[in-house]
């Protein structure tokens, strides 16, 4: 699925909203020939005032300085504000700017961690989420990024921290989202879930703020279209069909297929299961009454299938999907999807995005600096009031 909508996820909005005679479906290869190779560039600047044009970016993937962790040695740096609230205010200014540069279908994957102060976690990720919601952003996921190892921690009366967050924020419910492509990439089910286990890559020193390329790849696969129309700014979205094929490696799926065969369920039964879209047909009838989406026939077929399949009914809502093409707005002005990292640092986001065929832009007060040169603890005398307890 692409342009996400929880109400009707069967058609991308490009197709739904435009005159159908003006849009169509074609392959990515049709546009690819007209595109320059993917490229990246870096701008020296502030994440709160990037100078980039309005509506020019499809996805932001970034890791800002965490509160009170490092001194990057620049007077405009974010991260050394005296209080969590002041830090959140700085980040809200970033979100305002990012809203301006993002296309309406854009979204943000924001990697953040928490900080101990006076022996307590400050709840920074929650404060950021709360501030963002107050400003009209939608928090679509709070992804837990876990790692096997990490820095040894001196505390004896609490557990070592082994996770961070990746907050996925969107401006509108119709943001671009390719769960089908992401699921194919991950290869572990129709919706691989909101816990990402990604270990730091080899080239990251143990004491550095890790931001592996794999993290960026997942965000890009989910949230950045491969191609967009530079006339109407619409992302090209995957068009797919559901099949009745289940994953034969799962015992539950094998049993569901056996039962369906044994009781002679037809392709119409399977489509009816998929049309109801939830695991319990009783609930489906209740949810969708009055919407006009599921006719009495569909509900009857789904009920018949439920009677035969029992608890295995839901298996068919996870059936494999096949891509049949990509939306084509018909303007013929192709461009690559664009990823921005407004705290680009050493450029991890740019490398991963370009390797996936997206154009990429990085912004940083001190671009492409080597993190190894950054002192691990803040030592800015102007910020003396921000002394903290690391335990
Ligand atoms: C955690 S690092 C990002 C590391 C990056 N993900 C990487 O893989 O190299 C944070 C970066 O934010 C930059 N920075 C701090 N304050 C900034 C600001 N106000 N605007 C833009 N960049 C800023 C720092 O110079 C640093 O490079």
Task: Write up what this structure looks like.
This protein is an alpha/beta fold. It folds into two domains: 35-226 and 337-386, Rossmann fold, CATH 3.40.50.150; 244-319, no CATH class. Helices cover 28% and strands 20% of the residues. The chain contains eleven helices and 15 strands. The protein has helices at residues 13-17, 28-32, 84-101, 124-134, 179-186, 213-223, 251-262, 267-276, 281-288, 296-309, 348-355, and strands at residues 24-26, 40-44, 57-62, 102-112, 116-117, 120-121, 138-146, 163-170, 195-197, 227-229, 238-242, 321-328, 334-336, 338-341, 359-364. Strands 2-15-14-3-4-8-7-9 form an eight-stranded mixed sheet. Helix 9 (281-288) packs antiparallel against helix 10 (296-309). The model is unreliable at 1-22, 279-292 and 370-391 (pLDDT under 50). The structure holds S-adenosylmethionine. Residues 46-47, 63, 65, 72, 76-78, 209, 211, 342-343, 345-346, 348, 363-366, 369, 371 line the site of S-adenosylmethionine (SAM).
Distance between the ends: 44 Å
Give a short account of the largest sheet: 8 strands, mixed
Can you give the helix content as a percent range? 25-40%
Radius of gyration: 23 Å
The protein's oligomeric status is single chain
Write down the CATH class of the largest domain.
Alpha Beta
Spans where pLDDT lies below 50 across 5 or more residues: 1-22, 279-292, 370-391
Spatial strand arrangement across the major sheet = 2-15-14-3-4-8-7-9
């Amino acid at each position: 699925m692409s342009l996400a909508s929880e109400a009707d996820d069967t058609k991308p909005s490009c197709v739904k909203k435009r005159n159908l005679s003006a849009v169509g479906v074609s392959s990515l290869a049709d546009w690819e020939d007209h595109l320059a190779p993917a490229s990246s560039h870096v701008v020296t600047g502030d994440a709160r005032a990037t100078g980039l044009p309005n509506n020019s970016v499809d996805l932001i993937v970034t890791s800002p300085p965490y509160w009170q962790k490092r001194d990057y040695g620049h007077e405009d740096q974010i991260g050394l504000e005296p209080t969590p609230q002041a830090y959140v205010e700085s980040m809200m200014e970033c979100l305002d700017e990012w809203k301006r540069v993002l296309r309406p279908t854009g979204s943000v994957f924001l990697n953040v961690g928490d900080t101990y102060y006076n022996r307590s976690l400050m709840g920074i990720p929650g404060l950021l989420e709360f501030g963002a919601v107050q400003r009209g952003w939608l928090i679509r996921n709070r992804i837990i990024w876990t790692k096997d190892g990490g820095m040894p921690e001196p505390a004896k009366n609490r557990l070592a921290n082994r996770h961070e967050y990746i907050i996925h924020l969107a401006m509108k419910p119709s943001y671009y989202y390719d769960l089908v492509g992401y699921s194919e990439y991950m290869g572990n089910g129709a919706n691989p879930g909101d816990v990402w286990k990604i270990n730091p890559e080899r080239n990251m020193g143990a004491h550095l703020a890790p931001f592996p390329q794999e993290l960026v790849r997942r965000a890009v696969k989910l949230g950045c279209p491969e191609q967009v129309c530079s006339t109407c700014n619409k992302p090209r979205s995957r068009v797919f069909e559901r099949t009745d094929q289940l994953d034969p490696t799962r015992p539950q799926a094998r049993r569901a297929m056996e039962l369906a065969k044994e009781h002679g369920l037809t392709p119409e039964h399977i489509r009816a299961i998929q049309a109801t879209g939830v695991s319990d047909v009783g609930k489906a009838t209740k949810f969708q009454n009055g919407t006009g989406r599921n006719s009495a026939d569909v509900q009857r077929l789904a009920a018949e299938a439920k009677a035969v399949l029992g608890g295995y009914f839901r298996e068919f809502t996870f059936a494999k999907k096949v891509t049949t093409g990509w939306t084509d707005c018909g303007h013929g002005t192709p461009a690559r999807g664009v990823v921005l990292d407004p705290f680009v640092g050493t450029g991890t986001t740019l490398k991963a995005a370009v390797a996936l065929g997206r154009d990429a832009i990085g912004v940083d007060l001190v671009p492409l600096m080597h993190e190894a040169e950054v002192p691990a603890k803040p030592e800015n005398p102007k910020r003396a009031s921000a002394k903290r307890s690391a335990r």
